[in-house]
Write a structure and sequence with these properties.
41% of the residues lie in helices and 20% in strands. By secondary structure, the chain is an alpha/beta fold. It has an eight-stranded mixed β-sheet. α7 crosses α10 and α9 runs antiparallel to α10. It is globular. 45% of the residues are buried.
């Protein structure tokens, strides 16, 4: 049974909410299932078919969360989009409850319209202010969503607050490997074109991310770089961007955010090639038994 909480956080609506509200139709071109993230390629997966790679990324996150070890529990998808990852998780792990949160009211409505019968609870809320009790969850993940935050430590501290001691949190995202001013002018143009047109203030710095602790109550237990695994799915963005450009031109009803989203998608491949300055990492944290500090 799926329910919706449509209360918004105090600082909404935000640029991020407007971006996702306006680009629902664009993301449908990427995945009919509603996945908004990059795929994870492994041997024996067809690099020309996106869905298996997208769902392999889900499985990587679920393995890092060690969901197969849980006999019961609650899992939080923080920045869920259409909730596709949570829905996939609810099918793979029927013993668990999945709670999916997005700041976009339109995404919640679309998830309800498409998949209201599935066992996922949706919330229209800001992940800096979670509507959950302390120590009430057994796992949580930010799948390419923490990049939207200008206060990542605050978001992680809030996620840690709702986790039980011993529960895991997984973070997947692209990171700058050095301060932006120390990169080339061309890279600055490309990364800004991707970030700002995807409503990302700027990608976080990797060295700073390695110091994140959610107020001292999260301990990083694993981290690995996997950008080359994303390459095959990122290559799909080129022809899809061209196809979607002609579609928008034909209908002539595109919003400003749709054009920005299209430009960012076109820059994606170039960004991934700058491995000197940009890397994609998956980080796993465990909630310790210490109180979170402000």
């Amino acid at each position: 049974m799926t329910t919706t909480n449509t209360g918004m956080a105090d600082d909404a609506p935000s640029v991020t909410a407007e971006y996702y509200d306006d680009t629902i139709v664009d993301y449908t071109a990427w995945s009919q299932e509603g996945y908004l993230h990059f795929g994870y390629w492994r041997p024996w997966l067809n690099p020309f078919v996106r869905k298996p790679m997208l769902e392999e990324m889900n499985r990587v996150v679920f393995r890092q969360l060690a969901l197969d070890r849980l006999a019961a529990g609650r899992i939080a998808d923080l920045g869920c989009g259409f909730g596709a990852v949570a829905r996939h998780g609810s099918r793979l792990f029927p013993q668990l409850e999945f709670h999916a949160l997005t700041i976009s009211a339109n995404q919640v409505a679309e998830a309800q319209r498409r998949h209201g019968q599935e066992r996922v609870t949706y919330y229209c809320r800001d992940y800096h202010q979670l509507p959950f009790a302390d120590a009430s969850f057994d796992g949580a993940y930010f799948l390419e969503s923490l990049c939207h935050s200008t206060r990542p430590e605050a978001a992680l501290r809030e996620a840690a607050r709702v986790l039980r001691p011993g529960a895991r949190l997984v973070l997947t995202d692209g990171f700058l490997t050095r301060p932006l001013k120390q990169t080339s002018r061309l890279f600055q143009h490309i990364v800004t074109g991707v970030a700002h047109n995807w409503a990302v203030p700027m990608f976080h710095h990797l060295d700073q991310a390695r110091q994140w602790s959610g107020g001292g109550c999260l301990e990083r237990i694993d981290q690995f770089e996997c950008g080359w695994r994303l390459g095959p799915s990122a290559l799909h963005a080129a022809h899809l961007s061209l196809w979607h450009f002609f579609k928008l031109m034909r209908h002539q009803t595109a919003t400003p955010w749709q054009w920005k989203h299209l430009r960012a998608s076109a820059y994606t491949i170039a960004l991934g090639l700058y491995r000197k300055y940009f890397r994609y990492h998956i980080m796993t944290f465990v909630r310790n038994d210490q109180p979170c500090s402000d």
